[in-house]
Amino acid sequence: MPSAISSFLYTPGELGTTFNEFDKIDEISDCMNLLSDEESKMIYKNFIKFICTYNKDLFNFYDKNIYFNKDLRSSINYNFFVDVGAYTGDTLKDWLSYINTSQKFGYEAFEPNPNEFIKLENYVMSMTESIKNNIYLYNFALGDENKSLYISNNGVGSTISNIKGSVCVDTSIKRLDDITLHNSPTAIKVDVEGYEKEFLNGATFTIKEYRPSLLVCIYHKKYDFFQIPLKLHELCPNHKLYIRQHMPVYGDTVCYAIKY
């Protein structure tokens, strides 16, 4: 085990798993070495410690401004924003508070859940014409191929599946690379309940072509916390990688790949 990893591990707690259950230790170490500041490395270490110990105190250091971290947002061009997993418009509301609407701007929001999409539509319809004319809504999901699947109708925790459960509805999956956006994206946010890697695989051309900053959740699946940052580095090797924690418990851990 690389000393850079083993030196900060806790002894596994009663409810925790042993770190040796991870079979990708080299990649975990490679990911930490790519992080651009000490805060990111501390959060990354604490994330791994939590997996091993379930010690919830490890998330005491957080910033509630998810996708708009107070230390990083000045380095991100949010003017032309793509919101993948837009829900009812919570990120849209935050975005509007940070951008300068006297300049050119645009927001493209993808939300496959039909119930949440209606709420998102209603929120946008309540805005002034000058704002809503620059917001574009899509009622389908983004992934790595064009197909039809199912989405659970669970509100903020809705997940995509190839199995139709009792609370599932049909949804279309499309690749971002096959969509003509209204603007060249400067930032893309991705929170799709474990479908983040599939999204990235279907957005490779768009990301390499426009090199937007990427704000991607990395906590939904077991290996996301290192596989997603490594994928972002593969797609944008000149971007700087940061990790920020945005709630005082497990969840809302985001990797920022920022274009400089």
Q: Could you tell me the strand content as a percent range?
A: 15-25%
Mean pLDDT rating: 87
**Element string (H = helix, E = strand):** HHHEHEHHEEEEEEHHEHEE
- Radius of gyration from CA coordinates: 18 Å
Structure annotation, total helices: 9
- Lateral arrangement of strands in the main beta sheet: 3-2-1-8-9-11-10
Shape: globular
Query: What are the segments in which pLDDT stays under 50 over at least 5 consecutive residues?
Result: 1-16
Q: Summarize the biggest pleated sheet.
A: 7 strands, mixed
Ends distance: 33 Å
Helix content: 25-40%
Output the structural class: alpha/beta
Describe what you observe in this structure:
With 260 residues, this protein is α/β, with parallel strands linked by helices. It has nine helices and eleven strands. The strands form two sheets. It has a seven-stranded mixed β-sheet with strand order 3-2-1-8-9-11-10, sandwiched between helices. Strand 10 and strand 11 (253-258) form a beta hairpin. The radius of gyration is 18 Å and the shape is globular. The relative contact order is 0.16. Residues 1-16 have low confidence and may be disordered.
Quick overview:
This protein is α/β, with parallel strands linked by helices and 260 residues long. It is built from 9 helices and 11 strands.
